[in-house]
Write a structure and sequence with these properties.
By secondary structure, the protein is of the alpha+beta class. The chain is 35% helix and 30% strand.
Length: 187
């Protein structure tokens, strides 16, 4: 919760609203299905697998299939969509259905916010939570527009989201107002 600025103008003219947006990538469900199939194969081997090569080979096959299946399944489901929220305290990024991984960037750490109209997973090494030394950190769930934040530390954070222009405007309004959060506990 933040404190509204005082003045003669109505709050609706000077008080930016909470902005929310999201981006989806339905293509991520294909590798997720492959991960589920690999996991199912591991379960099938465990239940009705041939024991001709001995128990060690069977255990390694089952564990390998299940482990790879879980990694692929949950690694891709986490990036089928992203939800971005901007309010007076910061930018919040939550990925997937469980909201993990998540990232919070306080607005007092933001030096600039810019619109990047053409973000490509190819330039980041694929979909997901990415880090590249020359580009910074990113959450990439699809091709298209996104928000690029330059933080006071010099780090850069990028996220693909629908209506990225609206997100950039909301961030710039909040940063320009320089509002401080209201503390509910007595200090």
């Amino acid at each position: 919760m933040t404190e509204a600025p005082q003045g003669d103008a109505p709050a609706s003219q000077i008080w930016p609203q909470v902005w929310t947006g999201h981006a989806r990538n339905r293509m991520q469900w294909l590798p997720a299905a492959a991960g589920a199939a690999c996991m199912a194969l591991g379960i099938e081997l465990a239940v009705a697998g041939p024991y001709t090569s001995g128990p060690a080979a069977l255990i390694m096959s089952v564990v390998g299939c299940v482990a790879v299946g879980l990694l692929v399944l949950f690694g891709t489901i986490a990036f089928t969509h992203v939800r971005v929220t901007v309010d007076g305290e910061g930018l919040y990024v939550r990925c997937g259905h469980m909201g993990l991984p998540r990232r919070r960037i306080p607005l007092d750490q933001v030096s600039s916010a810019d619109l990047e109209p053409h973000i490509s997973p190819r330039h980041w090494g694929g979909w997901g939570y990415r880090w590249r030394p020359e580009r910074g950190t990113a959450v990439i769930v699809r091709r298209g527009p996104g928000v690029v934040l330059v933080l006071g530390t010099g780090h850069v954070f990028t996220v693909t989201v629908d209506d990225a222009e609206g997100a950039v405007q909301a961030i710039r309004q909040w940063v320009k107002l320089g509002l401080q959060p209201v503390r509910s506990d007595p200090a």
